[in-house]
Amino acid sequence: MEHTKKHPGYTTYILVWLALLVFTSITVTIAGIDLGKYTLLIAMFIAAIKSALVINIFMHIKFEEKIFKVFIFLSGMTLLIIFILTFSDFLFR
Amino acid sequence: MANTIAENYLHQSTNKYKGILSWLLTTDHKKIGLLYFVSILFFFLVGAIIGLLMRLELIAPGRTIMGPQTYNTLFTLHGVIMIFLFIVPGLPAIFGNFFLPIQIGARDVAFPRLNLLSWYVYMVGAILALVSLFLPGGPIDTGWTFYIPYSIRTNTNVSLAIFAAFVLGFSSILTGINFITTVHRLRAPGMTFFKMPLFVWATYATAWIQIIATPVIGITILLVIIERAFGVGIFDPALGGDPILYQHLFWIYSHPAVYIMILPAMGVVSEIIPTFSRRTIFGYKAIAMSSLAIAFIGYLVWAHHMFTSGMSDTARWVFSLLTFIVALPSGVKIFNWVATMYKGSIDPQPPFLWVMSFIFLFSIGGLTGLVLGSLATDIHVHDTYFVVAHFHYVMFGGTGTIFFGALHYWFPKMFGKMYNIKLSKIAVALFFIGFNMLYFPKFILGYMGMPRRYYDYLPQFEPLQKVSTVGSWILVGTIFFIVGYFIHALIKGKKATSNPWGGVTLEWHIPSPPIQENFEVIPTITHKPYDFSQLKEMKNE
Question: Which parts of the chain span the membrane according to its record (chain B) (predicted)?
Fold first, then answer.
């Protein structure tokens, strides 16, 4: 299959990998601090950034056709809705 | 169209082998569909016999033919086999594999080898499930929902049995990926999305659920196995876990899975009704879009299985409301099917009769679903026979009936043989009678307070339990009768013509049985899928 844009070089991959490591250490550090109800929110936020990096760069979605982006977006939205609905139980129990 | 025996897929090979190896190593989507057919039919018959034994135990109060532990094992096995080995893969893996590529004018699915791999993965999952029955510890007795904390604490072979479900999930995901890619990449020239037959639309929507929902059950199963093996407190409250979280995760998959089961069946109905009404489908786009709508809304209603679990009141009314919304696209389908028949030239051949039976049974199943979706009534009938009756009407009366409907519709195309029409009409009637005798009393029993999964019952339930058991004899007898006349048709059946029902979708344009790679020349699509003005041209072909 032909790709419309060029893939990134090794430098980008290594930078992304280092960024992922940094985010992981932030997650671990924050887990030790008691931030109350914001703990989960921050952990999810960091996880979202990490998965965006993996999906866009490592999985090459950034360089793919639009249809793949639409598919990934819809799947992500479904996941988000599932989270929100689960919290309609957890937060009000 | 004349067709000699040597020139069809049954006698052609995609590899250098002949005989059994040409089947086991085939990459032909039709042969893979038949591999699935044989294995799924086998497990269906096993599941049906287990159901028969359970009903026999319940013919009278107290012990009849088995002890309580055996009964617990049997209802678990019946559920696991029927759900994971029959009804989830059933229609997509058999008829989707066989007809989806043909209906969009393709020579095969996008990834033929991956397709064969999915069958092997399915078989590995099935064998693991079988092995778990015979290892020390004994067969699983948790019910097919594997609810925590019992499934963490029982000593039966839970881990291996649920690992089998994990493996089967991969088969489902691979099939889904294959179908989505096939629909996007391999449509024949002129086959736009809105010229695709509705079975393709339904299978396409199903494939999306298979891909997005199945990983959730995979993760959940792994978490249970980890908890069992290492005592990590994820779900077990005694270890600080949350048992309701398990129910959420389980139903986040298993509710959309209900739509994996029913959507392809609805697709088959949308094929059969126009063919036997000689009339284009009413509301084509509405039906196509309602499949996608069902697939989407199906993700948002899972916690209606959990109204009595102790989750928050907010979640209960939110999920109850969402549940009612899913009735809308289902209603769109039913009304459009009925409208298609209006002023049609109806030819009540067996496939059409199965569909009529489906509409009746599925409507009962669907409407009693609303009783269960309402908070107040659900509290009363939750975990009773009412629920058992409801989901058998939806799943067996819905998908199960259409499994037979699809088989009667496409059998002449798949094997090039015609079955006995008269016998098959009798079979529909017997099936309908047996089905209602078996399951309708359960609505009443459930309303009266008979809990599901109980080995014993109060004496006042005995008459209806007996009716139900007699119904199971009629139903299972009919199923074996059907299998019997199909086997007879395979051996001694008359040769089927290429278009015995007067259908117009692409599979009816090619010989019965089709050749390997389906089309000598890939067709260019000019007509809408249910344009019966093609019939005249087709007769001249």
Answer: 34-54, 74-99, 119-138, 158-180, 201-226, 246-269, 281-302, 317-339, 351-371, 391-411, 423-450, 470-491
Query: Tokens 């019946």 — which residue?
Result: B78
Q: B177 CB near a chain A CB, below 8 Å?
A: no
A88 close to B (CB below 8 A) = yes
Q: Do A82 and B311 touch (CB under 8 A)?
A: no
Find, in chain B, the residue whose alpha carbon is nearest to that of A87. B315
* Domains identified in chain B, total number: 1
Amino acid at B277: S
Place of tokens 């739509």: B259
Cα–Cα distance, B229 to B145 (Å, whole number) = 19
**For residue B39, how many other CB atoms are within 10 A of its CB?**
19
Token pair, residue B63, equals 């012990």
- In degrees and rounded to multiples of 5, residue B418 shows phi and psi of -110, 140
pLDDT in tens, B114-154: 999 999 999 999 999 999 999 988 999 999 999 999 999 99
| Interchain CB contacts (distance < 8 Å): A and B | 36
Question: DSSP alpha helices (H): ranges in B350-420?
Answer: 350-373, 375-381, 385-391, 401-415
Tokens of B482: 């059907």
User: Per-residue pLDDT tens for B246-293?
Assistant: 999 999 999 999 999 999 999 999 999 999 999 999 999 999 999 999
Residue B3 corresponds to which tokens in the numbers above? 């067709």
Q: Which of A50, A41, A52, A48 is nearest to A19 (CA)?
A: A50
In degrees and rounded to multiples of 5, residue B494 shows phi and psi of: -70, 155
Mean pLDDT of chain B: 94
User: B349: alpha, beta or left, given left = phi > 0 and alpha = psi -120 to 50?
Assistant: beta
Q: Is residue B292 within 8 Å of B183, Cβ to Cβ?
A: no
Distance (Å, whole) CA B59 – CA B54: 9
Q: Which residue of chain B has the CA closest to A93?
A: B312
- Chain B contact probe: residue of A89, A90, A91, A92 with most B CBs at under 10 A: A89
Q: What is the domain-level CATH number for residue B161?
A: 1.20.210.10
Residues 6+ apart with CB under 8 A from A23: A46, A49, A50
Domain that holds residue B298: 5-540
B4 pLDDT more than 90: no
Both tokens of B434, joined, read 């047996």
Q: Which residues pair with B179 in a beta bridge?
A: none
Q: Which of B185, B246, B247, B248 to mutate to test the interface with A (most CBs of A within 10 A)?
A: B248
